[in-house]
Design a protein that fits this description.
The chain has a domain at 28-126: Cupredoxins -  blue copper proteins (Immunoglobulin-like, Sandwich), CATH 2.60.40.420. Helix content is 40%, strand content 15%. The protein has 6 helices and 7 strands, in the order αβαββαββββααα. The strands form 2 sheets. The chain has a 4-stranded antiparallel sheet with strand order 4-3-6-7. A 3-stranded mixed sheet has the order 1-2-5, with no helix packed on it. Helix 1 (2-23) packs antiparallel against helix 6 (186-212). Pfam families: Cu_bind_like. Residues 129-179 are annotated as: Disordered. GO terms for molecular function: electron transfer activity. This is Phytocyanin domain-containing protein.
Length: 213
Amino acid sequence: MAAIMGVKKGLLVLALGLAMAATSSAVIYKVGDTSGWTILGNVNYTDWTSKKNFRVGDTIEFTYPPGIHNVLEVKKADYDSCTNSTPIATHSSGDDKIVIKSPGHRFFICGVPGHCAAGQKLNVRVLKTRSSDAPSPAPSARSAAGSAAATPSPTTETTGASSASGGSSTPDATTAPAPNANGAGVGAAGHQNVVVVVVAMAVAALASMTMLH
């Protein structure tokens, strides 16, 4: 019994540790890098965002002198027209950290008159989860799928025989994996999903042992 309790405790510690490792892969993006959130220096925020891969869990940090600028999150129409009268949210601390919680577009402007028109505006596109980043199935599921694929169906055999009697057959088309449209950031996302699978397997093993005892 002591050994079983020790195994349970070890699995729980492993699951917690891997969960913490997964969350640590989030990135903090400082808007404008060393220039910060400003109208000086002709900072091109559109170009800045085009070189980033924003994902759920990442943080966008706006740094600026308090009282000189602010950060308004707005709708797309207000972003396009630089309208500051109906913001979704207002930030003015000078060091505003905004955590990304969902995919899609988010729009930010400086609400000080004239600043948005001068280029102090930010369009953040948060990437959706790619199909290639989805967690792999558990080993048992893969084994079952492999066994099913290895057993030819009557339809397959009949088709093969028909092709053979016809003297020619059409080779099966193999679908090539889709290229990574998002560029950088695949390694971190793939690692995070592997961690999620391992955590799920550890929790499942812990639950099974609990039911047996």
